[in-house]
Specification:
This protein has 66 residues and is mainly α. 70% of the residues lie in helices and 0% in strands. Helix 1 crosses helix 2. It is globular, with a radius of gyration of 11 Å.
């Protein structure tokens, strides 16, 4: 992740941490992280608290924009 702005690096780290907490093993590619967060938001919407769902969808949308 060399060369990424600090805010971007933090965002990716938060997303990775969230997925690892749920037992989802990650690759190091940004696209893989994006896909897994999107899947989690789509499949686990009922299992996540409203606040966690909002966090996951926000991270996903931020990653898509940049």
């Amino acid at each position: 992740m060399i060369g990424l702005p600090p805010a971007r690096r933090r965002l990716i780290s938060h997303g990775c941490g969230f997925l690892v907490e749920r037992g989802i093993r990650l690759g190091t590619e940004r696209n893989f992280i994006q896909q897994e967060l999107s899947k989690l938001a789509a499949e686990s919407a009922a299992d996540l608290s409203p606040r966690m769902f909002l966090l996951v969808t926000d991270i996903t949308s931020e990653l898509k924009v940049k």
